[in-house]
Specification:
By secondary structure, this protein is mainly α. Helix 1 runs parallel beside helix 3 and helix 2 runs antiparallel to helix 3. The chain is globular. It contains four helices and no strands. The two termini are 20 Å apart.
C-alpha cells in the first residue's frame, strides 16, 4: 500500500490500524498512523455513560478531521491530542 492508502486504512477501526501497521508504508504514513493510534486510544473513555458520551462526540469529530486530512494527504494535527507522539 502507498502512504495515502495506509493513512486512510489506519483510521478505520483497530483492525484497519493493524493492517496499516503490518502491510502499509510505515515511513510515508507515520504521521497518520500516530494520529489514528492516539484517536483510538483516547476514544476508550467514551464508553463511560454521560460524560464519556460528550468526549465520544469530540473524538468522532477528531476522527473525521484526521480521515479527511489523510484523504487530502495533509499532515494536520487534530485538536487537543494531536501533539502526542506514540509512534516515533
Amino acid at each position: 500500500m502507498d502512504a495515502r492508502t495506509t493513512g486512510i486504512v489506519a483510521y478505520i477501526t483497530w483492525i484497519g490500524f493493524l493492517i496499516a501497521i503490518c502491510t502499509g508504508d510505515k515511513e510515508g504514513a507515520k504521521f497518520h498512523l500516530n494520529q489514528a493510534l492516539v484517536i483510538l486510544l483516547f476514544s476508550l473513555p467514551a464508553m463511560i455513560p454521560c460524560v464519556g458520551w460528550l468526549w465520544g462526540i469530540f473524538m468522532l469529530v477528531c476522527w473525521v478531521m484526521g480521515l479527511i486530512a489523510a484523504i487530502n494527504e495533509e499532515e494536520k494535527e487534530v485538536p487537543l491530542i494531536g501533539k502526542i507522539r506514540l509512534i516515533k
